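User: OmpA family protein. Structure?
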Amino acid sequence: MMSRKFLFLAVFSILGLSAFSQMSADRIYFGVKGGMGLSWAKYSELKNRDPKMLFGGVGGVFAEFEFGENRLFSIRPEVDWLSRGTKISDSDLDYKLKAKYVDVRLPLIFNFGDYQSVRPYVYVAPVVGFVRGGDISLTEHGMDYKVDVSEANMANTYFAGAVGAGVKIPIHLNGGKRLQFALEANYQYGFTDTYSDMEKSGEAIAVNRFWYDIRGNRKLQGLEITASLSVPLSIFKRTPKKKVVEPVYVPEPVVVEEKPVVEEKPCYTLEEIMELLGKGESITGKTICAIDIINFEFDKSTIKKESYPYLDKIVRLMKNTPIHVVVRGHTDNVGDADYNMELSKKRAEAVYNYLLKAGVEPSHLSYEYYGMTRPISTNDTPEGRLMNRRVEFEITE
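Assistant: Predicted structure:
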């Protein structure tokens, strides 16, 4: 029994660590949860009895791994501690089963909306439960019985499925850090019989038949309402301390007048380019970076209509000046390198075709694509990835 638990938890941990190694720190959350649950039993051959719900608490720990653009999907391995059972209270009998469980669950979650705001979600989850104790009490014909839950009177492993829904509420902190609070409800349906082999063979008592004559099966079901609080792994990253440099005596240098060297900016806005033209300055060799301005449909190269006005301004610039423009497509590092390279190609080509159809001379236009190989910011933050998902317009002679 114990070796089976440890083997299952070891496999569970290996899967979690494998997912952990492939993700950035802001997509991994660790958290705790707690709440209340109701459970009851369904007997296949219990006659003239009406099993009632049993109230209990639930608590657990979990890790959540978010995937996909806008983090639509997530996996949340978790370990929970709770009780399950049922009770029967009739005029001639008073029975209560309360078994303590350790659950290992793997919710597969679909999230709605933007991950930086309040977002609802739904999920399905396989559930494996391991019995860790409890008690069974029975009063019948003036006689009282009470025994501990064990392998003698309870199947030690429980398999179930769960469906649930909830809502995630971000709590923003200073320095761009945040916590995540969630409220959730789920329903669980037990697939396996919870009678033990010893009960069925007559070595333990039960309610639905005379002693030593158990028939049918007993399956558990339940409802839970929980609240959870989790933190992203990135919250634990420390800001590097500034090195203290001791002052060093430097002799006064000989001053030689030189013309100031103006560093070329890696990126200009379209407005800055127009301002340079207005001053009569050259714009050759400069690059216009369209960051979060030219947008495409999710996972496609179709340009959204909201981007047309900006592209039309590029068209007017090219028609009014004898410049050549190279359209360059870039992506962030989310996803496979080959996939990102192909996506940047299709999106650069889509912008290129739009400009041609708008009347730009083909001899003044070309396009290139680089996938995620030329970032201009870090890919470890949402803001940095936003800057790296861009279309550039390099102005050449």
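Residues 270-396 form a domain with the 60s Ribosomal Protein L30; Chain: A; fold (CATH 3.30.1330.60). Residues 208-212 have pLDDT under 50 and may be disordered.
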